[in-house]
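User: If only I could read backbone structure tokens as easily as an amino acid sequence. Underneath my words sits a plain record pairing an amino acid chain with its backbone structure tokens. This is the protein in question:
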Amino acid sequence: MWQVVIFETRTGAPILDVTSLVGSASWSTRRNGQGTGSHSLRLTGAGIPRSVVEEITRGNKYTIAQIWSDGTVAYAGVLVDEDWDEVAQTSELQSKEIRAFVVPGRMLFGVLDYAPDGIALTIANRSYSSAVRRLFQAAMAPSSEWVLPIPVTGLADTVGGFSATWRKEEQLTWENCLKQIEDDGCEVMLRPYLSGGSLFWEPIVAVTVTIGSPWDLAVRAPGSLLTEPKVKFSSERSVTGILGFGKGTGQQTPFAYAPTSGSGATDQPIRDTVVTFADIEDQTRLQAAVDAEYNSRRDRAEKWSYGVHIWPDGPARSMPGRVHRLWTYGSARLPDGFRDRRVIALSGDMSFKVTPEVQNAD
């Protein structure tokens, strides 16, 4: 069963269980932290003082979370907007995942600490995990007001190939710096979870984030938990080559390309394109970003859509990072056998059905 709870964003402390007030809900959680939510609360006869409602609906200060009975946090979003319907006496709370709301709006220093020649953060020869660890530490370091319930002690602090110097004059946000690390060839996911009743976000860093073992699902079989499977084969974003430009002006702008030799068009028309990585000036990092972009777009995308029944086990096996092993037999279009698809987003409401968004994990 679902439970909806309001937490304090800065401490993660639980504030109020509003499950009984929820009239409707829709939410989506994404691997890259760009999910959103909408929860409608019926306040007529709720017995909650106006002063309490006024307080717990404050954007930024509070986070709303949708939790399964086993403790799985399916969605946690920082409150952004509130729409009050005076006739219906309902309050609709709009929220965004913490990376979509807090991270893009924060620099690594306070406004009073700006210096045109200052350094915001330097990272030298660290692994991706270590780079993320040091970035998050810096983003929460200035004072207790900057701290968030995002423990970084689980991230390895090891040497590696990532280096960067972020200057204050560049006016970069926490998200800008995080995106640069990802562009170098990794993924970062902030996984919400409960500990001692409080809400936390675990940072997970990997070249490709996956969690647990694949879950076998029959695409067409009586009693299967998978419903309404459809597949779209899309070449909309496919390319035969990438020319990537970094940070610079005119002829001094750094560039890189992929493939680095030969042609990416073996049996099809040329479809080379240009991509700009406006924050990257290091040549090695730019090449890594271009390679990653090319590899993700060189083949047509096979986009699956389907629903998953979650009663009674809950959504844990369909959360972002989990792998669904989809088995097909006797299809007029799809070959017999299985293909692994990684969940990169999950959406749902207050019902017992969720809809994953998946990508190739083979």
